Amino acid sequence: MFKAEKHVLTSQDGTKITAYDHGGNGDTILFIHYLGGIAQAWGPVIKYFTDKYKVLTYDLRGHGQSGQPEKGYTFEDAASDLVSVINHFKRDKVHLVGSSYGCMVGLYFTAMRRERVLSLVNIDGAMINDTGKDGLYDESLEEHLAKFEGQFDPDYESIDAFKQYYRENWQPWNEARANYVNHFKPRVKENGKVGAITTEETMKAIISEIYYVDFLTWYEKTECPVLFLPAEKESHFEKSIRFIEKASKGLPYSKTVLIPNTTHLMMYDHEKELAEAIQEFHAQLPVSQKSSM
């Protein structure tokens, strides 16, 4: 379930950002969802944290109930939004937890706003570059985007058709996935069809921002502890492990935890193990990394 107090705030450039306060007390933990997702993605894991943490989530710009401007999808824009969220809730420092693209946003923020972050947890994200040596792709950005032509923002005949597609194709279908799809509010397009909230233009803008980034340069600027949670069943797993070894060398403290049989969005299948790994990591941090006010 996803029960939270909704907050609507404005980022520095005027973009509306929708954030959620899930209650709780203690250190503040803030979850950042993946590309094309919404804050409700964290529904399966939140229940494991509210007894020990102040829990916050938010919809990234271009996602969910946040604004979707035509421009403004750099990592600096995303970091500015995150500052606005943290300040809105009057937090000084937070523990960040990201999934996929959310890891990249969290890493950039951690590197560039070091004084605001207690620790960083990366769930199968920001642990391999798209391009460069040992990267995922050996093609230009234009060639890369062309491969996904027509897939960024497909048409569905109706909201029911949208949900049916996910029921049939997002496997293994379970209660966590069903709850997410039920919260997901598609948009009605000008052609009368139904699509995801995040448009093709926004998806391309964010993917273009990511494509040539060398995440190692951001880890070199990171001063807080980092937990890496690579997904064992993904094809890029071995490359991720090699990347993590490089990234860890310059970090003051890092830990890598492998949860068996995990896929990219592991919060839908391994929520309990995921929560336990994060809390164990936090329990091992020095006292100086446990003060969010």
Automatic annotation (TrEMBL):
It comes from Fictibacillus phosphorivorans. One of its GO terms (molecular function) is hydrolase activity. GO terms for cellular component: membrane. Keywords: Hydrolase. This is AB hydrolase-1 domain-containing protein. Residues 28-156 form the AB hydrolase-1 domain. InterPro entries: AB_hydrolase_1, AB_hydrolase_fold, AB_hydrolase_sf. The keyword Disulfide bond does not apply.
